[in-house]
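[Meeting: bench + compute handoff]

Bench side (C.D.) handed over the final construct sequence. Compute side (W.E.) agreed to return the predicted structure before the next meeting so the bench team could plan truncations. Sequence as handed over:
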Amino acid sequence: MKDKDKTKEQLILELLTLRQKIAESEWWEIERMRVDEVLQASEKKYRDLVESINEVIYYADKDGVITYMSPVIERHSGYSVPEIIGRHFSEFVYPGDLLKASDYFQKHLSGIGEPFDIRVRNKSGEIMWVHVNNRPVLKEGQIIGFYGVLANITEHKRIEDALKENN
């Protein structure tokens, strides 16, 4: 029906319906903005938390390629985050521990992972000990990656070795 064929009452009803839809649309836009603010505040809180702890938070895909690394990595290793992202974890593992790291990675892929200690090389080539604790990321029951925590335990290992030498 064309507008010219509608009665005054029909046009008024249409106008009221349109105004109601506009008001609902404005309400939803305000609600979306409020949710965005809440999400941004939550994201900031967790980013601040991740960036303030001494341990390194990371994410690697199922192939072992690092896709996220918390900024504290630079303090521990000398590598900046962009120097790490997109690289395979094995590039940082001390050659003598590469087989061990690969075995643990395969176990984690099969769902039998447990925390482990391993040596890595920092940017200047020095050896560091790290405690690795990760969890699988699942999508539709399949492992698509891992997130976890690296703790620098180099000083702990030095003390442990010194105690062994003194005994």
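W.E. noted at the follow-up: The helical segments are 8-52, 73-77, 81-84, 98-109, 154-166. C.D. will use this when planning the next construct.
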